[in-house]
Amino acid sequence: MHDNLLPVIITRKWQLAESYHAVELQTRSRSELPSFDDGACITLVRDNVICKERIYPLCCFTSRPSAYVIAVRQDDDDTDAETADISLSQGDEAFIVTPRSPTVVLDDSTRSILFAGGVGAASIAGIANRLALAGQKFELHNFARSPERAVFRKELDALKREGGVHHHFGLNADRLEQTTSHAMSPAHANTQIYCSGPPAFMDLIERQARDWVYPANIHKIVLGDRKGS
């Protein structure tokens, strides 16, 4: 059970990409919400009695002081209770916890490599934006089953002026492992690695990164079931 839960209402919902939606959260009085850094996440509690909760990425490009926008996955054919998102519809009430911002290392002497999958692209886009604003070098790899399922592709492409942005679509497990390994090698030990996406995807990135960088330089932005964090 969390202390100081903030009650909110879902005021809008729209499609971001195939199987992915944006959900807008506001207080009933439309009061200003706590500020957050790009790349932050919030814990959303759908029912304060049974405390069904999940962690969602905040969309820095569309959120504003009086409204948070989160990215959610909604597959019509997704029957896996462990990966399925909480059902969220316009008019629903929920509770949220104060946003949690990821650690982003800003150092001109270090390089950053970012890996995104699914709604993790929202968190990674925020981190990349922070790096870009600070004039930091980075390389970003975004993975999706298809171009139609790529979340925030336009926003990521807008960062190409500041860093390398690469999209990878429809890769099987072997090709995914080869692509992420190639993106990471060779990496200097002080390189910063950021990843967000499905658990198996982040486990792969972490396992490969440990061959190259210090463990403290691996940053996983965990989403979904809070038990997994």
UniProtKB/TrEMBL annotation:
Keywords from the named record: 2Fe-2S, Flavoprotein, Iron, Iron-sulfur, Metal-binding
> Taxonomically, which superkingdom?
Bacteria
Question: Recorded GO terms, molecular function?
Answer: 2 iron, 2 sulfur cluster binding; metal ion binding; oxidoreductase activity
In Swiss-Prot or TrEMBL terms, this protein is called: Oxidoreductase
Q: What species is this protein from? A: Paraburkholderia madseniana
The organism's taxonomy opens as: Bacteria, Pseudomonadati, Pseudomonadota, Betaproteobacteria, Burkholderiales
